[in-house]
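Sample entry follows:

_____
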Amino acid sequence: MEYLLGIDVGSTSMKALVYDFEGNVVSTGSHPTESVANDPNHSNWQVFLPDHIWDGISSAIRQAVGKLPPGDRIKAAAVTGLGADAVPLDSQGEPVYPFINWLCTRTTPQFEWWLEHIGLEKTFQVSGWQPFVWNTVFRFMWLKENEPEIARRVSKWLIIEDYVNYKLTGKYSTDYTDASPTLLLDQRSLTWSDELLKIAGLEKDLFPTPQWSGSFIGEVTPLAAEKTGLLPGIPIFQGGHDYLIGALAAGAIQPGVILDVTGTWELVITPTVTPHWTEEIRNLGLTVEAHAVPDTYCIWGGGTAANMLEWYKDQYGTVAQQRAEAGQGNIWSNLMQEAQNSPAGANGIFFLPHFNGTACPELNPRSLGAFLGLNDTTTRADMLRAVIEGLDYAFVDMLRALELGSGRKADRITAIGGAVRNEFWMQNKADVSGCVVDAPELEEATALGAAMLAGTGVGVYQDLQEAVQRVYRSGRQYEPDAKNVQLYAELFEIFREIYPALKNVNTRIYNRFRVG
């Protein structure tokens, strides 16, 4: 038997999944992704170590392929991942500094210099992006300014999934979806922008030539084969940024489909074949960039999401954990059961989900999270439900921006990502938005999307449309509850007043405690 391999470099775990040609999981492997504070004087400086990434991916692949029966083989593979985080390599292809990861705050000065000297409009008109503190160009600039001796040794910069491709094949490569968050890709020509490279003080030959997702990169080398358990010569095809690769598995490849991807980040995306870089779209906090589907673009808004539930679990989930350890459910089912002990509206408790700032429809990396409405009757259940409701209010804010920017009204949402396993969250998303939420039955959509690209590249599928027809599985539909829809419409108007009311206070707190 022959199979396809999808490899996913995530911010919390690295995974390798073997799929048959119908999209069914045959075997899996995984390894935790560890973020490291690499400077004792700066607790907010976070990195991924290159050896950890390659060792972890290799371990995940070896686990997955090691479970296959003798004689079965991988026909082709592709890699997807969290994007943006990049590693500098010297002329011998060896890392000279770790990946500065997306949680790191060290690039705030470079981000603010960019806003002052280049500005939102120029950035958007060339790159299609709203600038974020974690955009890759700011890592490049930080290294030049703070580690000039190291910067002079840099021969090539590779996004994290492109680094895995390099370790597998020995080839430097990237695709449009991974080149886009650098802020240096000209979306109109789909080439590196000479203008922005010059402003950033960077040379074009520091970066691989970008190409469409699904393009052939190279074959697994004997050295990589020994490390991963793959056979030498297996073809590796270009994957890309995880949310757009996951869109392939969800069938969100045609204009008119609105996709919600909820994991560490939440993004609301719609494909388009007629991209527009208008002032209105920029003012809505939206991004317009190349899709993983050839000759297609997308419009999206996004912000951090599930990491706030992870935070709640870690800090306040002791009782849920104890119940799980006693054989009563698992920690997440226990937490969701607890949240349901609070009524819709969380007894007047609101949560502003800005642990990592806000991006859409307002761009402000210095905004912070907050609970409001606390009183002496507030319960832990109220606070937990408020977190979920706050995330869904933020989702509706992004959805409204996307509707305005795309000119399409949503009445149905396709949802993928780790959050779709959380039935309470999905039902609340339907109630808060007033939209039907479709959750396809897909196992690890991002890895499956990568496998689809590999399968299309090697000829298993004629094109991505056929791949979707072969692998897509419909799943559960969440219908909005009319009574809750009316309540949440009223409460959403209160939620929208929270950010402007706290904006200045949060900025002062951020400046005092978060910078540096």
Q: What stands out?
A: The chain has two domains: 2-251+443-471, 306-439+481-513. The radius of gyration is 22 Å. The chain has a mean pLDDT of 95. The chain is about 40% helix and 20% strand.
